[in-house]
Amino acid sequence: MTSTASIPTLNLMQGASIQEHLSRAADELLASFPDPEHLSADQRRGIIARYTAVLEGNFIYWMTGAYLAVGSEEARSIILDNLREEVRDCHPGMLRKFAMAAHAVPTDSDALAVYRDLTKVRLFVGRPSGVQIVLMMAFFEGFIQRFMPFLADLARRQGSAEQEYTDVHGVCDVSHTQELFRALAVEMTLDPLEPETNLFEGVDLLRALIQSIVLIGDRPMV
Ligand SMILES: [Fe+2]
């Protein structure tokens, strides 16, 4: 256990290259998304529904997996603060309200469309790598604040005025991302990965899941 006073910062070069990698991954994802203006109502509904099918029941699960995987008190405390806010402000309820107002409550086929990639992420967070899981969550928190305008636009085009979920997540996740990077720094010092381990494995799995949420067209179901 380390004290708060001794929290390390990521080695400058390492930290910059990790953040650059995550930022590039988010840029590429966002650039691959369709223009909401060119989507049909059904395609817009599908994206909101698949996003809801994934996030409503899994974000807290993933963050809990991160909590169980980390070894330092600092990282646990950062993750607990994040979980506390999720539960106290009922973010799953906020998301459900958002989906209902946009007439995009997930159906069984929406759940099936994301099943394969969601299962891979679920299995991944059950593994005991604090560093990889915290990095995945840092990527996600950084990504969704940039994703929120897209999601809000889809909902508006569905005739919805309900924006609490997108408003809250466009703001609060800025500080969540910074805190998770602090947790990452502590974990990388405490329990460094073997050189041959892919630091970005969870990030890659999550990117594939986000693609299965957003990308339109034929996709393998299982
Ligand atoms: Fe949330």
Feature tags:
mainly alpha, Heme Oxygenase, Chain A, 222 residues
The CATH superfamily title: Heme oxygenase-like
Please write the CATH class name.
Mainly Alpha
Distance between the termini: 42 Å
The structure class reads mainly alpha
Number of strands: 0
Task: Could you tell me the CATH topology label.
Answer: Heme Oxygenase, Chain A
SSE order, one letter for each helix or strand: HHHHHHHH
Tertiary shape: globular
What is the rounded Rg? 17 Å
CATH architect. name:
Up-down Bundle
Name every ligand kind in the structure: fe (ii) ion
Helix content: over 70%
The biggest beta sheet is recorded as: none
- Tell me the quaternary state: single chain
How many independent structural domains?
Answer: 1
Structure annotation, total helices: 8
Which spans have pLDDT < 50 for at least 5 consecutive residues? Answer: 1-8
Q: Beta fraction of the residues?
A: under 5%
In short:
With 222 residues, the protein is mostly helical. It has one domain (10-214): Up-down Bundle (Heme Oxygenase, Chain A). The protein has helices at 12-32, 41-69, 73-88, 91-101, 108-125, 130-157, 164-190, 201-214.
